[in-house]
Amino acid sequence: MDRTDSLRHEHALSAREREILRLVVQRFIHTAAPVGSKTLADEAELDLSSASIRNTMSTLEAQGFLGHPHTSAGRVPTEQGYRLYVDELMDVSGLTPTEATLLRHGVERRLGDLNAVARETSRLLGRLTQLLGVVLAPRLATGVLERLDVVPLSSTRVMFILTVRGGLARTVIAEMDSEVPAHGLDPIVQRLNERLAGLTLDEIRATGAERLQDLDADDRTGIVRIVVRDATVLFSEADEARRASVGGAQHLVGQPEFREPEEVKNVVELVENEAVVVHLLERPAVFDPAHPDRAVVLIGQELDDESATYSVVKAQYHVGENTGTVGVIGPTRMDYARAVALVQHVASLLSRPDA
User: Fold this and answer.
1) Domain limits of the chain?
2) Rounded CA gap, 29 and 36, in Å?
3) How many Cα atoms sit within 13 Å of 12 on the Cβ side?
4) pLDDT digit string (tens) for 203-262?
5) How far apart are CA 346 and CA 342, in angstroms?
C-alpha cells in the first residue's frame, strides 16, 4: 500500500478511529504484545469505556488496519495499519542533545575517510535504533573522474588511484606486462588526465580505448596499455558488498521477532550477505522532489516476498555530485518515528554537497 492509497483513508476514518489506531501501533511497537481494549482504557487518556474502544478496534480490524492473533484477545497492527500510521499519524521528534553530539562526533572524527565514517556511523545507528544500521557508499561509476594517479608497488605491479569529484576515491592494483620504469611515469599520467579527467567512469569504460588509441602507440611505460586492457575493472563499480557498512546485528537479533533459532539464522544470513543488504536499501522508492533528503519508509511486502518480515527506513546523502544511502533494517514492528528522525539526521551529517 503506497502513500496515495493511505491518503484515501484520511476521511474514511473518524478522529476516534485514527487515535485508537495510533495508540495501538505505538503500544505494540514498544511492548511487542497484542493490545487489548482494557489496556488502552486503563492507560490512555481517551475518556472512553473498554467496550467503546473494543468496538472501534473491531471496526479498524474489519477495514484491514488491525489484526487479531488467534491466541490473544488483543490486536496488532497490519502492514496497512503501519502504513497509515507512518504517513499520517506518527510524530517525528528531534534527537536528544546527547544523541546528536554522539553522531556528530562519530562523523567529525573520521572526516576525509568515507569508509571509516560509514563504519562508525552504521555502528552508532544500529546502537541507537536497536536495529541494523547500514550506510551505502555512493556509486562511483556515475561519478566524474577528477584525477588519475599511478603509484609503483614493485617492479611489475602498480596501483591506480581514481579520485572522483566530491572527494571519493577508488584504488585498483594491476600487474604490468613488463617492468615498471623507475622514472618517466609522470608525463604519461599527465596526458592520461588530460584525456580522461572530466568524464564519468562509465564514459571512460565505454570510450577509453578510442580516446587513448594514439597515446598507446607512443607509450613506452606500458601504463596506457594497462588502462585500455583493464578498463572494465578500473572504471567499473566496486563489488556491491564493499559499498555497504553494516552495524548492529546483535541488536536486531535481540528483537522479539528474531529470537527463535530459525529467525536468528535468517538474520545472520542477511547480515553476511551484504549484496542483499544493498538490494534492500536500494529498492526503488519515490523520494519527494520537494524534500529529497526526507526519509522513505518501506514496510513488509513493499520490499519483496522474501523480505516481507522486514521494514526499511532510508534517506539519501550527497557527497559532491554523488549520492549514497543511509538506513536501518528491522522488523515491521519498529519504532518508525525514531528511525526516521535518526536516519534523516545521519543523512544530513554525511552530506557534503559542495565537496
Assistant:
1) 3-89, 97-138+240-350, 145-234
2) 14
3) 12
4) 998 898 889 988 877 788 889 989 998 888 888 766 555 678 899 888 888 888 888 888
5) 6
3-89 topology per CATH: Arc Repressor Mutant, subunit A (1.10.10)
Q: Match domain 97-138+240-350 to its CATH number in 1.40.20.10, 3.30.450.40, 1.10.3720.10, 3.40.50.300.
A: 3.30.450.40
Q: What's the pLDDT tens digit per position in 298-355? A: 999 998 877 888 999 999 998 877 788 999 999 999 999 999 999 999 999 988 766 5
Q: Could you write out the DSSP letters of every residue in 210-277?
A: HHTHHHHHH-SSSHHHHHHHTHHHHTSPPPGGGGEEEE-HHHHHTSGGG-SHHHHHHHHHHHH-HHHH
Between CA 130 and CA 253 the distance in angstroms is 9
Q: Which fold has domain 145-234?
A: Enolase-like; domain 1 (3.30.390)
pLDDT tens digits for range 19-59? 999 999 999 999 999 999 999 998 877 888 999 999 999 99
Residue-level length of the chain: 355
Number of H helices, E strands in the chain: 16, 10
